[in-house]
Amino acid sequence: MKSILQISLLLLSTFSFAQVKQIKVPNSDSVIVINITEIQEEARRVAEKAARIAAEQQKEEMELIFKNFSGDFDFESLEDLNIEIDQEEIERSIREAEAQVRMQEAEIRRALSEVHKERKYQESTIITNFSVSHEGEIKLNEEEDNIISISEGGKFVVKKRTFGNTRKLVIIPNQDGSLSYKYYEGNQLIPFDPDGKNWLKDILPEVINSSSIAAEDRLNRQLKEGGISQALKYIGDLSSDHTKVVFYKLLVNNKKVNQAKLDEITTHLSKNVSSSYNLADYYSSSLITYYNKKGLDYYFDGIKSISSSYDKSKCLKDIIDQKEVSKQFSNKEWDLFCDVVKDISSGYDKSKTIIYMFENSESEISADRYTSLLHSISSSYDKRQTIQAAFESLNHRLTDAQRDAIISEVRYMSSSSDKSGTLLDIVDYWNDLSRENKLSFFKSAATVSSSYDLRKVLEATIDEAALRDDEVIKAFYLCATKISSSYDLRSTLTVSLDSDGFITDHISPLLLASQHISSSYDLRSVLEEAAQYVSITDAQLYYETAQKISSSYDLRSVLEEAISQDRFSYDQLPFFLEAAKKITSSYDLSSTLEEAAPLVVASKNEDYKNKYIEVAKKISSTSERNAVLGALFE
Fold it and tell me: Which residues form a coiled coil (predicted)?
């Protein structure tokens, strides 16, 4: 078996040393350009690297190999050659060379599929109807005033109606290569000579100007007479965008066109072809040519000139599909690609393009590019679809920085519903998020304007048992303060209190968040639920929060719930009694103090006793006041 080195040399020696090889596809106007030199030079560089790392005594054999690249070489002489080289490097080079060949083979297959395709052109006005169809390879004479040959199986048909009078000419090849003519006026077959012959001479200039008949011969005449400049002028004078694009394709693949000329051709194309469909057809089929001729700067500038969002998007998707090219893009070329994406005016098409990129691209997308692409989508709905696709398609490949860029972009959505919907989608991937990602999540969630939507988002993170980190916990409750509805804020806080993951350490940020509840009833509900977690550490904050309850009944209910907890200690009494002072109802205040009296007595603390008496004096009812004070001496 031949060594990897032998295979690489064999692959290299099969190519000629022409810089660019032109492959003419039979019976068509298509020309395929293969950049053999790039393949050859890469293999040569690998072989040279092998030579450098080989043992000194083996250099002469390697030099002999290089001398034989351009001629026939007997590989049997290498059978006993033992060279220690980097085989992985050589295999990589061979894979890249094979990729280049596959790209060109794809172009050949595409061209071959069009060899026998019938091409049609039709133009209609109120008084005229003109149509041309042709198939196969057609040749004109030098003066371009007569058809001299049509390839086997081909045909040429031209038809024109003017003021109700119709003429039609059909030309097909005979087996001996001569041509057979059928000329009609109306539905009547008329001898071709002289009427049909004269009509063909009259109509042929119009046919030539509007169709791609004999396109390659016509273009070569222009190049021979005046070079690329004259060829461009000739193309610009053609009447049909479709026909112009056929000529532009032939021209850009011509061996006379180098990198410097690509700019001129692309600019000329953008100025002379208005049809977005035809422009997209040109660029979708020319990527490899621009890539091989190192003209991708001009290529992306050209795609930018396409006015239709749909057609511009189609071009970009075609680029992604040609993975052998797109996966070799440099950072600069990806920046150019993304600039075109951002230039798509339709939010829908832009979103679909980015999603397609996420789902099909094999290349790494930087966090900055994620931010830039997502930020360019103005529609909240489209941005949501795009972000959802990013997580669905790329989550396993995303870095923390990339996730952060995507999550942070949610805050720029205008729709509260789409914001919350996007964040709920992201919650499905919560366990994959880093601490920084989760902090960004809550910063984005804080921009949700709807209390209901924000509540749903926050409650979803609780359901995921997500609150495990102190910083994340603080971010959660800080975000909860953005809920303006007392009901929705109460719901969020009580759900967090009821969760399996809630611990005593969470109580302080929860109490701070609960202070934003304006409803006495809703605040009471939260504080009653939280009472079981209150210790002396949090007592002052808890009772200060309770004082925000305006309803005497609700405040009494909270205080009685708090004092009934096993965690309640004598040290909490000063804060408890201070909160009780806010109760305006004599009945509710006396009831609250009666609950506290046994603990005040048991504490044997004179300060607590004096505070109790001070609060009791606020009771307006004499009987109730006396009962409360008497409780201290029972």
Answer: 36-114
If we measure between CA atoms, which residue out of 483, 472, 467, 545 comes closest to residue 508?
A: 545
Indicate the SS3 state at residue 172: strand
Distance of alpha carbon 270 from alpha carbon 303, whole angstroms: 9
> How high is the pLDDT of residue 124?
54
Kindly report the backbone phi and psi dihedral angles of residue 422, in degrees, each rounded to the nearest multiple of 5, phi listed first. -65, -45
How far does CA 503 lie from the centroid of its chain? Answer: 41
What band does 22 get if pLDDT is binned at 50, 70 and 90?
low
Question: What letter represents residue 90's amino acid?
Answer: I
CA dist list (Å): 567 to 331, 500, 564, 571, 612: 61, 20, 9, 11, 21
User: How far is residue 579's CA from residue 540's CA, in Å, rounded to a whole number?
Assistant: 10
- Helix, strand, coil percent content, the chain, rounded in steps of 5: 65, 10, 25
Least Cα distance to 181 among 157, 204, 154, 211 occurs for 157
Cβ atoms within 10 Å, residue 322: 15
**Residues composing the chain:** 634
Residue 33 is predicted with a pLDDT of 52
Burial group, residue 546, by CB count within 10 angstroms (0-12, 13-18, 19+): buried
The C-alpha angle 267, 268, 271, rounded to 5 degrees, equals 90
Residue by residue, DSSP assigns 546-610 as HTT---HHHHHHHHHHHHTSTT--GGGHHHHHHHHTT---HHHHHHHHHHHHHHHHHHT-HHHHH
Give the other-Cβ count within 10 Å of 227's Cβ: 12
In this predicted model, what pLDDT tens digit does every residue of 107-136 receive, in sequence order? 544 544 443 455 665 655 556 688 888 888
What is the pLDDT confidence band of residue 157, given thresholds at 50, 70 and 90? Answer: very high
Spatial contact of 283 and 273, defined as CB atoms under 8 Å apart: no
Alpha helix segments (H runs only) across 151-306: 197-210, 215-236, 241-252, 259-272, 276-284, 287-292, 296-304
Query: The whole model's pTM is what?
Result: 0.68
Where does residue 126 rank: exposed (0-12), middle (13-18), buried (19+ CB within 10 A)? exposed
Q: What is the rounded distance in angstroms from the CA atom of residue 9 to the CA atom of residue 66? A: 9
Element containing residue 121 per DSSP (H, E): strand 119-124
C-alpha distance from residue 88 to each of 229, 353, 379, 470, 506 (Å): 47, 35, 47, 48, 56
Amino acid at 297: D
Q: Which tokens belong to 557? A: 């209910």
Per-residue pLDDT at 306 exceeds 60: yes
Are residues 600 and 612 in contact, defined by beta-carbon separation less than 8 angstroms?
Answer: yes
**3-state SS, residue 483:** coil
How far is CA 421 from its chain centroid?
A: 19
